[in-house]
Amino acid sequence: xxxxxxxxxxxxxxxxxxxxxxxxxxxxxxxxxxxxxxxxxxxxxxxxxxxxxxxxxxxxxxxxxxxxxxxxxxxxxxxxxxxxxxxxxxxxxxxxxxxxxxxxxxxxxxxxxxxxxxxxxxxxxxxxxxxxxxxxxxxxxxxxxxxxxxxxxxxxxxxxxxxxxxxxxxxxxxxxxxxxxxxxxxxxxxxxxxxxxxxxxxxxxxxxxxxxxxxxxxxxxxxxxxxxxxxxxxxxxxxxxxxxxxxxxxxxxxxxxxxxxxxxxxxxxxxxxxxxxxxxxxxxxxxxxxxxxxxxxxxxxxxxxxxxxxxxxxxxxxxxxxxxxxxxxxxxxxxxxxxxxxxxxxx
Length: 347
Ligand SMILES: Cc1ncc(C[n+]2csc(CCOP(=O)(O)OP(=O)(O)O)c2C)c(N)n1
Ligand SMILES: [Mg+2]
What we know:
Blueprint: H1 9-34, H2 49-57, E1 64-66, H3 72-77, H4 82-89, H5 123-137, E2 143-148, H6 155-166, E3 171-177, E4 180-181, E5 184-185, E6 206-210, H7 214-229, E7 235-240, H8 258-265, H9 269-279, H10 285-307
Parallel strand pairs: 1-2, 2-3, 3-7, 6-7
Antiparallel strand pairs: 4-5
Helix pairs in contact: 1-2, 1-9, 1-10, 2-7, 4-10, 5-6
The structure holds thiamine diphosphate and magnesium ion.
Magnesium ion binds next to strand 4.
């Protein structure tokens, strides 16, 4: 895991590379899902790359993130390996969760990636918990929760932000306002112009940033991180972004027009940043093309790795389901609820 310094040419190149990797990964995942090679559902992050990469690049390697059902971009932004991610999408043993999680449950706790999550709004409580642990242990770590506009009004999200604010925890709540929760436009979900106004209710700073601009996201998260590690509590950031693909692959999208998609595609966060780096003399156009080709080649290799990886044996189905170091759960997978065979309901 590397620390990324946006002030340096190397840092800027790495930021561009990670956004390109996400784009290539999700294009490949979409194609392979369409070919029937990937089971379950995939929700692609294409168009939103600047949010994940801007945010994670402003974090330190030890910091925590929580993710959503649309989590591939968060994983790559946090530095996870694309071959193990693709193997997880394929349900293979070499995947991050031995193939038992799939697209919506990739986790790598050692890398601070506390999990993609199929439950809308489930990330913020985990981030509040991680931030509480960092505060109690006196560690210089923060926890950042990515969540969608569709999660902002979830009860557990309110509880999580309220506790983090009340206890002054080192947490960052980052809403990816991509304008839809499934097929419901954001203005039909909320009676607020900017979702960041939500922050007022918790008496924490809240602001909206251009989520198509990786630098803007980086700077917002950098400031929020500094506030968090200084003991000044959480920050609420809304990133104004857009998803280019359907809610899930296969979504016919009757709820929006192609014109809207095309207008946002003209604001492509990857092209915008690449052009800026070319204008600044950090990269030539050829070098941008080389970086993109290298990202695409890495993802082709990752997909080949996943294809050739091993199917888990059905006899392993109940392994890794519970943390057996927790005594009460040690025999759960075997059928009884508690080590002494009693029911947990009497506790
Ligand atoms: C608690 C819960 N309610 C409903 C769903 C079904 N669901 C899955 S994704 C989704 C929309 C989420 O929208 P948003 O939070 O804006 O994220 P986006 O898909 O736009 O990234 C819904 C309602 C769910 N998975 N969990
Ligand atoms: Mg959304």
